[in-house]
Amino acid sequence: MRDEEGEAVVIREYDPKTDRDGTDAVDRDCEVGPGGGMSLHADLLGDPVARIRRSPRYLMLVAETSGPGGRIVGLIRGTVKSVATGESLPGAPAFANVGYILGLRVAPSHRRMGIALLLVRQLERWFGLMGAEYAYMATDRSNEASLRLFTARCGYSKFRTPSLLVHPVHSHRLRAPRRATVVRLGPRDAERLYRSRFAHVEFFPADIGDVLDNALSRGTFLAVVDKGGYEWRGVDRFLSSPPASWAVASAWDCGGVFRLEVRGASRLRRGAAAATRALDRVAKWLRVPSVPDFFRPFAGWFVYGLGGDGRDAAVAAEALFASIVNMARGAAAAVAVEVAALDPLRSRIPHWRRLSCAEDLWCLKRLGGGGHADGWDWARSAPGHSIFVDPREV
Length: 394
Hints:
InterPro entries: Acyl_CoA_acyltransferase, GNAT_dom, Plant_NAT. By secondary structure, this protein is an alpha+beta fold. It contains eight helices and 15 strands.
């Protein structure tokens, strides 16, 4: 294809030796907020592939003009892995190879030329070569251009609507329910628990052990609601005789991949936020709902693998989330978790509405040869109560 100046646009694989400046420029151009208001900027710390390189298979493509002084005008990132579909087959959970699309960007000067469509189609071809049966992407429901591209032109269906819940990290500690006891699990115990109790949860990764062993994983924690307290006696004892109410979750340090920064805030807004932080530091007992310094580059933590069982599982989940927020003090400005629309644990997760997204949107597409012999199609299936969000793709 050619752009408005008649130059051909070529799609090719990203070259870290020559393309870093060009891709950084495209990312910066696409971070501008609407109408001069506040916008969220992501700094990939000099590594454009940072968000995908911890996945088992990944690829980054760029769109480049081929004329004199050719420049990069678009990019897209993708990963392929094996995940649970939530559909049980006789004797084993059903897994499928899926491709995940993220970081699609087209420079404002080259939009409405079909470049985004070319990038998506080229990445889908690579998905097919990697054996992917499905492809999916996540976007904000208000991103009309993205939705038109994927649903109207690329054949994706609106699939799931999880919520992103975010809580700031204060100088004071977040209170956790006293009825819950929180213990830390070793990676191998955590892996066995996850595989035993969560292998049927949608998007549960087959390589969960690699996720838990990653240097960015800050640990897995179990919360149990028990009147007499709880003592961890090993994963075998837990699996054979689980407590009445419990929840488990793991923490991931996104600051090792990217830093975020809110730009475009007024001096008044910055000053008011700074005043809340100052008061919180000198009078922690007041428990001031202080606003972290989001106006300079900051790190965030992500809670993944959240799940549980029992009447008070939501109480246990609240204790877990509060404990991780407290653990993040001095290392992150905010902690986030993404939960399914039907997840009963979401009711007790502490979060700030102004920082959270009540309804994210995931779209899914069945690629050639996907699905099962009996005609079952994951893209047309009903949502479950839980969803596993891989922290490597946040």
